[in-house]
Amino acid sequence: MGIFFLLPWDPLRYIEEKLEALQIEMQELNVMRNDLLRWVSKEEKIGPQSLPEVKDWLLRVEKIEVDTNLLLKESVSKIQRLSTYGFCSLNCISTYMYSKEVAKEVATMLRNVETLRWERIFEFMAKRASPKEEKKRLAFQPVVSQEMLLESICSRIMEENIGTLGLYGKSGIGKTTLLTQIKNKLTEEVYKFYHVIFVGAVSKDIESVQDEIGKMLDLFYTRNWRGKSREEKATTIYEVLNRTRFGLLLDDIPKDLYLEEIGVPYPSRENGCKVIFTTHDRGAYKWVDHEVEVTRLSSQESWQFFEERVGETTLASHPDIPKLARVIAEKCVGLPMFLCIIGDAMAGKKTIKEWRDAVHVLVSSTAKISGSEEVFTISKFYYEYLPVGERSCFLYCALFPEYGNISRQDLVDSWIGEGMVSDETKGYEMIGDLVRMGFLTENKEEYGYGIKMEEMSRKMALAITSDVERCEENFVVRGGNIIKEMPEVKDWNLITKMSVTCTQIENISAYPQCSKLTTLILIGNKNLKCISDDFFRRMERLVVLNLSFNETLSELPETVSSLVSLQFLNLSWTSIKRLPLGLKELKRLIHLDLEHTLELKDVEVIASLLKLKVLRLYRSVSLDFSLMKDIQLLKSLKELSLTVEEGATLEGLLSIRWLAVCVRRLHLDEITITDGGILLLNAALNLRELTIYNRHIPAINVGRRNRSNMISRMSTCFGNIEEIPKLWNIRKVSLSECNYLSDLTWLLSAPSLRYLSVTRCFSINEIISKEKAINQLGDTNKQPFQNLTELILDGLPKLESIYWAPLPLPVVEYILIRDCPKLKKLPFNSETAKGDHVEIKLPGGSWINRVEWEDNSTAQRFSNLNYRSFLPH
């Protein structure tokens, strides 16, 4: 008679789970490697070979990949043999011993993989000092005349009789760069401003300007802000600014702007406030006290600037190159923006033919835009150097609203829908290329990183796309508050893409025949209520339809069924109540965005959209078991965002592995978690954003839920070898009114976190618990928040600790701590937040006097805070 062993856990299942975890981690590591290889391929075309550190990292990844594949192959064979015996036999001893052996080996490999990922090899890219990156640094080193102008302007700002000052000059002259440098100066203590507010690329829409100011004054995120009228917002802004001394900087303001419309008190000798702005037009504002012209660089300054951008190595490549370089520099007519652009374009050109071709293109690239022909010529020159695919992506950017941010996500989604790029990675790479080339600029004022299109780039794109004879694409782009009706078009059959944004249009009743129209963008038309049944009838080739931010649009006509080619539909931030049954006919639809559609109730047609790859329901209709059943029919689904209000539904979602892996954004609202009250996030490995508004979750963990609480049993059998899985993709976490949570130690498993907001959580006493960190990870050597850019802690009455030791916070840009009366020690030292553009808001008064600083140097560094807004040096 044999001896039987009954183990309290399933060892073979445990082995499979460990191996699966290793596979997932290796997949993520391979994504990093592929990104790095693409970068190396690009950089080696324009400069010396890769850094030794990069090559070494790639070799180590290759080695661990070989070892992993070998282990997986051997384990599959071994598991198959062991499973044939069952678990109630002498073979249990072999199974147990093998599972223990595999667990140790996998744990070692996981640690090695994690080490490779934590090395942050991509920081070596910055050290690489490629020509483009080197030139980017040079752009912030103004020439002598610009330095003198900056000093002169700052001196005038200090004068009591100057409250408003305007900078005027041509496009590309450097006004925005100068205004940014002035902003950095105004944050210094000598100016004694309580608020320094910068609004870039000012919109003609007053409410957009008010929203930007509202963000800087912490008004935008209050619950009633979005419901206010323009006049009410102006009153609120005025009440805040009228009580303090502020500096307001406005970039590229329209002619008809009046400060009182925004809610900004006029600066005076008494209040000591200042308003500085940039514009193209001199003398257009009667309320300005002083104007300064921003002039071109001299010929000698232009050459010195251009010479630095191109680099000595390139200029020495051929005896004739310097002469041709001087010709090109002269063609830039003293405009810093285009000296940068052309200099960067030519930095890697080392043959005389390339330089002769460049001069030819520059001389022949002429087109007329009123008052800006020379600037347009430079832009057109650079456009000619773009590959065909990048040209199309660049032109597409002009379809988005002229003022305000373009969402990177929306842009990439649209490109994918149009077939311009194959996936997200290539889309974000394309944006990076266009930013480096100067066609787009980054705007990091909001989480998610918006981008903006340069004014002249936009004008050039529209000029190119309106040239019917020379361009395959023919755009119609209209926008602004003055527009109250859909634009008249002579021949709709010539139009390939149309954009009508931020207008006063209330009804669309046209019946156009659009045989070539593939893209229709109707964004931000706040008064749009009705689209007629006939409007969509003859748009059979339409591929992309974007109706986002039309706040009063509550329904779509059933004739959307005519859009048989549609692949991309965005209805986010609308008041849509139900999806028309006609959507069932859209058999090619792969992307449906319904985020922030709070009125939406009926989505039964989703079950018919079997080709959907992207479905977004974040802050929309709540997931229930019926909707989950419909979503499970979408076998092509790759990305999912959801709102969940029931604990059982959430557990059901996370138990369906392929569906859980699709989740990118998750909003939990008033949800109660059962099974011990712990929210386990391990199944949602690709989660990017988590928002919880909830009073019934006492704990959040990242661990593997197994049968019979297998985690604790494994730790007993194998010791401390359980690897806590990492949520590598999570970027944003917002928690509000989670009144049972005592800590957020689980964030140690989110190394890529960029944004953390914790508000009105009345039981939290520490953000990261040292005791729990040791129990979960076994050590505390890895510091959290290495990628954090924003930290908001507001209304936490029991909070006593953020972290037990100082944190470097190397990339942080914004910190707000408010209403945390028991927080006496901050995790800061003299090296914390050592960036050039960091804003920290702390309460003053008795609270700041009780703060215990790490040492004297930290106290000295933070001693000059005005405790509302400052910029450390």
Q: Major sheet: order of its strands? A: 9-10-12-14-15-16-17-18-19-21-23-24-25-26-27
State the distance separating the first and last CA atoms: 79 Å
Number of strands: 27
Q: If you compute it from the alpha carbons, what radius of gyration comes out, rounded to the nearest whole angstrom?
A: 29 Å
Q: Strand content of the residues, in percent?
A: 5-15%
Could you give a short account of the major beta sheet? 15 strands, parallel
- Count of alpha and pi helical runs: 27
Question: Can you give a write-up of this model?
Answer:
This protein has 27 helices and 27 strands. It is of the alpha/beta class and 873 residues long. Among the domains are: 11-128, no CATH class; 137-293, Rossmann fold; 297-385, Helicase, Ruva Protein, domain 3 (Orthogonal Bundle), CATH 1.10.8; 689-861. It has a 15-stranded parallel sheet, with helices on both faces. The chain has a five-stranded parallel sheet with strand order 2-3-4-1-5, with helices on both faces. Helix 1 runs antiparallel to helix 2 and helix 2 packs antiparallel against helix 3. It is globular.
